[in-house]
Design goal:
This protein is mainly α. 62% of the residues lie in helices and 0% in strands. It contains four helices and no strands. Helix 3 (44-58) runs antiparallel to helix 4.
Length: 112
């Protein structure tokens, strides 16, 4: 049990560390880039455009169909590139964060 005024003893802290592990968030799972790219090609608006391309092809307008497909693919590629770069930048920023400990010697509490 933690006493608000005194905190944990070194033995209690060591036991809690062994029992519960370090007080840290787990690392985020990295998503496969191919799944991210596929997600950009099949979101709701992209699906509507794929359907429009199919309908344009069925209606005998192959040029329009090709133009729609090109728009969907280019949009997906640019969106994927932006998301991929943003994820990498967030990882680099996360790596720069310091491990937080006591800010000053006054925050350390000695065992009695």
């Amino acid at each position: 049990m933690v006493r608000a005024a005194a905190g944990l003893t070194a033995a209690e802290a060591a036991a809690a560390l062994r029992r519960d592990g370090p007080n840290a968030l787990p690392a985020a799972k990295q998503r496969n880039p191919l799944l991210t790219l596929a997600g950009q090609m099949v979101h709701f608006f992209a699906l509507m455009l794929w359907a429009a391309a199919g309908l344009a092809l069925l209606a005998g307008m192959p040029v329009l169909s090709i133009a729609i497909v090109v728009v969907v693919v280019l949009n997906g590629a640019f969106s994927f590139a932006q998301e991929y770069r943003a994820d990498r930048a967030a990882e680099r920023l996360r790596d720069l964060l310091p491990v937080r400990g006591p800010r000053s010697p006054a925050e350390y509490v000695e065992d009695p």
